[in-house]
Amino acid sequence: MASRVLYLLGCAAPPVLRIADVVDDAQRAGWDVCLGLTPTAAHWLSDQLPALEQQCGHPVRSRYKMPGQPDAWPPATAALLAPATFNTVNQWALGITEKFVVGFAAEAIGKGIPLVTMPCVNAAYARHPQFDRSVETLRRAGVRVLYGEGGFVPNAPGEGRPEAYPWGRALAAAAEALASTGAPD
């Protein structure tokens, strides 16, 4: 088992439909991958969940565990929340943690777990005034936000290109975030 544990947390945006390939890429890079999804992303991938659990070797989580229930995942050494929707970015920045992936990411800031996120929003959402405030809030909290040049650049509404989502850049940034902590690779 890999000594580096990546919590890969995905939201309901079209690039999440390629998450099995991303898990493969992360595993080839030496990560032990634990996959968490928003409830809608889990619904989109419902027919793939058993295969994803087998691929990861851990349950795919989309809900909080019950109080007192042991954690089925090993502790994270880094986390990547991608694709991160408009809703998730704003909820995370505002501390609204009704969804498991947002709750984990919010708590991870306080725990000092290296965090990377890459939004997936169209240009209309990106023009909403709260979005820039949320991105800046997360950056100030120490989250590496891959948005703009070198990360995700929004498309016009209806002109998304999920196949062009820069997953490789996101995985590289997670490894860089871990390395910047001085933790062994």
TrEMBL record:
<dbReference type="InterPro" id="IPR003382">
    <property type="entry name" value="Flavoprotein"/>
</dbReference>
<dbReference type="Pfam" id="PF02441">
    <property type="entry name" value="Flavoprotein"/>
</dbReference>
<feature type="domain" description="Flavoprotein">
    <location>
        <begin position="13"/>
        <end position="122"/>
    </location>
</feature>
<protein>
    <submittedName>
        <fullName>Flavoprotein</fullName>
    </submittedName>
</protein>
<dbReference type="InterPro" id="IPR036551">
    <property type="entry name" value="Flavin_trans-like"/>
</dbReference>
